[in-house]
Amino acid sequence: MSQWYDEVFEDKSRFGLKVRQTLFHAKSDFQTIDIIDTELFGKVLALDGTFQTSVKDEYYYHEMLVHPALTTASQIKRVLVIGGGDGGSVREVLRYPEVERVTLVEIDGDVVNACKEHLPEIGRAWRDPRLQLLIQDGIQYVEKAEPESVDVIIVDGPDPIGPAVGLFKKEFYRSCRERLRKHGVLAVQSESPHVMKEAFCRIVSELKHVFRNVRPYFGPVPIYPGSGWSFVYASNEQDPLEIIDRRIQQIENGCRYYNRDIHRSAFALSNEVKQGLGLK
Length: 280
Ligand code: SPD
Hints:
This protein is α/β, with parallel strands linked by helices. It contains nine helices and twelve strands. Spermidine binds near residues 50, 88, 156, 159 and 224.
């Protein structure tokens, strides 16, 4: 009898993966953690029954969350990643030789440990000496961090549910702005623009309270509900379309999805997105 793992989305849809083997299952202080080996996506991380990433499609999400910010920020010496305990986002950040220090703040140490053991293909940079790993609440960390000390902040959060809701509020974005240097850039994941349109529009609107340049952009993530995903680039000074040439040259050949053309097209807004955001 085959075994299936289903992500039920808001009691409206069910996306199931055929499981070859359950590799890890535990309840941490924060959530249920599952790592399963599946026919379609290979090894998959799910938190509280929601697919987070998979060995076969993780590059879409991690490349698109990280590189638009890192190829355009004027300086990228200090980078802060909130969430992302699977290690995929910091792996992409650490591909830039200019990065001197990346701090990864993940609330759930059990996620990090499980991913180190079962998903080493995703977190390939755990041993990089430039990486500082802190197991603590990201919201509190950002509130207390030194002002104007960071060049880029990446928020690799879960869905805006329960305790994670605070990661999507203007108060948190304000703390991020205060920690960023003048030309700093914030990049966040912002849900599906189709099946989570309300959440997506709310995130953009919260960011607009805090930053001058707020530019949503889009990419596929096959394992997520709706398959099309959104991210937001926010900055007071930087323009997301002003790519720094030497950086994109260094990075794009080693990417599976992201490149210069994808960067430019990702920021195009469809008419329905413009309408949802009140721009049309
Ligand atoms: N619907 C799932 C959204 C999860 C976003 N975060 C994924 C973490 C991958 N590093």
